[in-house]
Specification:
With 520 residues, the chain is of the alpha/beta class. The protein is built from 13 helices and 17 strands. Its EC number is 2.1.1.386.
């Protein structure tokens, strides 16, 4: 830990991992997935940081009805195919996306990033893989302010407002709750906003005011120092709770309040519980205490009394994402099995992960976008076997397909009892001498990522300890040496991506930024 100035004249180092704007987005996506939301309006959408992941296609359709895929004819020979959408947090199947913002520049970027993929057929085409889409998606981007009623938003399923409310001018702020909870009355309203209470975490308890870098309250109503020059207010814990509970009661909603964002570094004064999280989050859920008609009429009445500017929203961009032509048109089970066999033989593989096979377009197209058809085709095929050994049964993303009667090398793809992955290294294999020498220091000591690795004996290298060290310290990846697999900040839980872990040059990167990483 860096030394703390005795006079408290400097801000403390505060780092968030993941960065704060990503933690807020993860909170939003988790709720959308948990609630199986299909329609989203992003208020103050900016460059589309939320809209872009939401516009990505789900990897497969929701389960087919029994009329399309009946139960197995012989349940004693094959187990019922599981539904791949009954996870605790299922995939999203978004059908309608709306975004509204006052910035034309931000909307231009959002429009480009949410448009359907359209790679021109040229020499670079083979380097891109476009995930198949199985469902329609309509995207609309609007230019305008929150204070203007847009009838297309009335009754939308979910509204998201991340790091927006604190930017509203005093004359616009009174329209926030009446417009969103009244006129539009969604099933869900998700809000995030900075916690002023948490700002104390950046300085010592007795630090002078000059130690806090930031921006004085531009309204002059308080002497508070804010995180951004455009913030009109930042709430304390009590102020946030009072506003949320009051809005929920007035408009007929229940509200759950919490927070996201705690520093990686321990607070020298142990104030973590006292100060809470850097961002407040609140989830409003509609109740039956009011009827939608009552909410809407009351909301419109309040908006009219505010006499705010009435320039209508302008439709800035409109995108229609069309599903694959094979969507919901599955082939027969034998035809699907034949497509799997052809693909495995093409790759000369006796074992393949089922989801790896699924993402081969020929296979998923044969299934019409229903992964349950793939499971059933494998189960009923005499040439394929679905392996769910050991703890794999509860982790369907690791289910394996075995090709029977094809390749002669059909050893189990998983380590057997008492074995490790090292047992699968051929005994005759040795590292290339030239590459190995690059990792050896002048004095013969071997280090990796600035961490010395012990040797089994003098002059010898223990590859087992090296492998263990690399895995435990997440140095070893299956791509380049600085890559590790992490869960992508994506609405679709089964998918992961590889990316480099980059330490921000600014230790506070992300704490004072919103989804655009520039404003809060």
């Amino acid at each position: 830990m860096e030394p703390i100035p005795e006079d408290g004249s400097q801000e403390l180092k505060v780092t968030f991992l993941p960065e704060l704007h990503l933690q807020r987005r993860i909170w939003v996506l988790n709720i959308l997935r948990k609630e199986s939301v299909t329609q989203v309006l992003d208020i103050g959408c900016g460059e589309g940081q939320l809209l872009v992941p939401l516009s990505q296609p789900a990897p497969w359709l929701t389960p087919p009805p029994i009329s399309i895929l009946p139960p197995p004819k012989d349940p004693e020979l094959t187990s019922p195919s599981p539904a791949y959408n009954d996870d605790e947090i299922p995939n999203l199947h978004i059908s309608h996306l709306h975004g509204v913002d006052i910035s034309k520049y931000d909307l231009e970027f959002a429009a480009r990033e949410t448009a359907p993929p359209n790679f021109a057929p040229d020499s670079t085409q083979s380097f891109y893989h476009i995930q198949q889409r199985w469902e329609d998606l309509q995207v609309k981007l609007w230019q305008g302010g929150l204070e203007v009623i847009n009838d297309e938003f009335v009754g939308i399923e979910c509204i998201v407002s991340t790091e927006v409310i604190e930017h509203l001018p005093p004359e616009i702020f009174p329209a926030f709750a009446p417009m969103l909870l009244g006129v539009y009355h969604p099933q869900l309203l998700l809000i995030t906003t900075p916690s002023y209470t948490y700002n104390a975490r950046f300085t010592a308890p007795d630090a002078p005011t000059s130690a806090r870098s930031g921006y004085p309250d531009p309204t002059g109503r308080t002497e508070r120092i804010f995180r951004h020059d455009d913030h009109k207010f930042e709430w304390t814990v009590d102020e946030f709770r009072a506003w949320c509970e009051g809005a929920a009661k007035e408009w007929g909603y229940d509200v759950e309040m919490s927070g996201v964002g705690r520093a990686v570094e321990p607070d020298p004064w142990n104030r973590e519980d006292e100060l809470g999280e850097a961002s407040f989050v609140a989830c409003f859920k509609k109740t039956l205490r009011k009827q939608d008609g009552e909410r809407e009429s009351c909301g419109r009445e309040v908006i009219a009394k505010l006499s705010l500017p009435s320039k209508l929203h302008e439709l800035f961009a409109k995108h229609a994402h069309q599903p694959d032509v094979s969507s919901r048109k599955p082939k027969t089970l034998p035809e699907i099995a034949a497509a799997v066999i052809k693909k495995m033989d093409q790759f000369s593989e006796a074992f393949m992960r089922m989801e790896e096979v699924w993402f081969e377009p020929d296979v998923s197209s044969a299934c019409g976008g229903w992964i349950e058809f793939l499971v059933r085709a494998i189960e009923e095929s005499e040439d394929l076997n679905l392996l769910k050994e050991g703890d794999m049964g509860n982790n369907r993303s690791r289910w394996m397909i075995q090709r029977l009667g094809g390749l002669t090398d059909t050893a189990s793809p998983w380590p057997q009892e008492g074995e490790t992955s090292l047992d699968y290294i051929p005994p005759e294999w040795e590292p290339e001498e030239s590459e190995f020498e690059e990792s050896v220091a002048a004095d013969g000591d071997i280090s990796w990522n600035n961490s010395e690795l012990d040797t089994e004996d003098e002059g010898g290298f223990d590859w087992g300890k090296a492998y263990k060290h690399l895995r435990e310290n997440k140095v070893l990846g299956w791509g380049s040496g600085d890559e590790v697999e992490e869960e992508a900040v994506s609405p679709y839980s089964p998918t992961t991506k590889k990316h480099s872990i980059v330490s921000p040059t600014d230790p506070n990167a992300g704490w004072d930024g919103d989804a655009s990483e520039e404003t809060s």
